Amino acid sequence: MGLDPRRDRVLVVGDLGQPSSEPSQACREAPPDSKLDASRCRSCDGRLVMRKAVLITLLRLSLVVALFASAALFIEYQRAGDPAFCGVGSGCMAVRLSPYSKLFNIPLPTWGLLVFGSLFAFVMAARSRAQHLVVAVAAAIGAVAAGVLVYLQAHEIKAFCKWCLMADSSTLVAAIAAGLLYRYVAEGAAAADKPTQNETAVSDLLAEPSITIAWILAAVVGLAAPFLWAQYPVIPPLPEQVAALQVPGKVTVVSFTDFECPYCRGLHPTLEEIETQSAEKLVVVRKMMPLSGHAGALPAALVFECAPPAKRDATVDALYRAPEELLNREGLLSLAEANLGLDRAALGRCMDDPATRAIVDADRDMFLAIHGAALPLTYVGDRAILGFKPDQVREAVALALQGPRPSLPLSALFALVGAAVALASGITLRSGKKSR
User: Fold this and answer.
1) In 388-436, which ranges are continuous DSSP H helix?
2) Parent domain of 220
3) What is the mean pLDDT of the chain?
4) 342 inside domain
5) In terms of domains, do 353 and 220 share one?
6) Mind listing the pLDDT tens digit for each residue in 33-78?
7) CA atoms within 13 A on the CB side of 302
8) Given 47, 151, 270, 340, which is the most exposed site by the fewest CB atoms within 10 A?
9) Are residues 278 and 394 both part of a single domain?
10) So what's the pLDDT on residue 199?
11) Whole-model pTM?
């Protein structure tokens, strides 16, 4: 009794055109005298194995890219403002300063490293149908979270972070690949009590040492390379307003500050220390950015602008150390007279002079023009440091005093990570092709 040729054709076409068809099942169900020969069964099985090899590659590749993007963002959050991968006025900075940048008070990039790292490790070990199901479910949850984050960037934050989008899109791709891979594995396992030739071949493919080593190498490169590149960043040109403040022959530190801001006050001892230690090679230029929520910031800024050059440093120190209850017109006039020896009447007239207020307003306009996101904002030479980062300011000063450093372009970073991923992908696909 032979197999109906029409059934033969339908099964083969179904395998090629419909992913849900199971060619191995057709081979198993064919009677002994079937015209469906062994070579055709092997060809059908090979196509399924090759498709699974593609999905395995796509899943692992997307997770490595997500790890790579998370590592870059982790560095950005640690080195806020210092131009490693984004910069002060970037969409990444806008996302970082938003209320959506943390989950349970832990920065999202830290979560990304933990989640993507764990999922990648589990994917590398997954063999059974149950394990592939766990991967598919976890990736699907990640895809939902990625979709929410993209929505928040578009509609709430109204700024897009390119590295965030890289991680989010990679998560979506991983979810699709993991879902399809589980579908294939589940169909193969449901077709018979014993594993089919296709399932065995896929399991062997996943366990091949060269594939495992290649993907572990790709993940290590994706994680480690951003940390290396962050040490040798390509520094973007200074905003022209800040560039105009640079003092020739000296490292110029431009500090945008608010005398009532607690973080600005906390950074003052560091700036005072480096200015004292490197007085011959470094100069600090202070620009006023009194925040509207700090009632004492504006009168303190006016006092700073009115202080004579010979007493400017002493005035700065007194304003940062003054109790907040004294940061008002009368309190500051009394402080300046008693502690700084300034003429109270002359200082009052200077504070009331519209020209003095215009200087403070010009500083504020400069801060807004360079897209300053928060205080304190400190430029050390051509590097920008956002927030209370005393150790980072010291490091930037030390590097600036050493002179120009080599830089590693981002294109080389992408080339390195791309090469590692391409190598792992090529080994996986080649192994899948051999198993056909």
Assistant:
1) 390-402, 410-434
2) 37-234+416-434
3) 85
4) yes
5) no
6) 444 444 455 455 555 556 778 999 999 999 999 999 999 999 988 8
7) 23
8) 151
9) yes
10) 54
11) 0.76
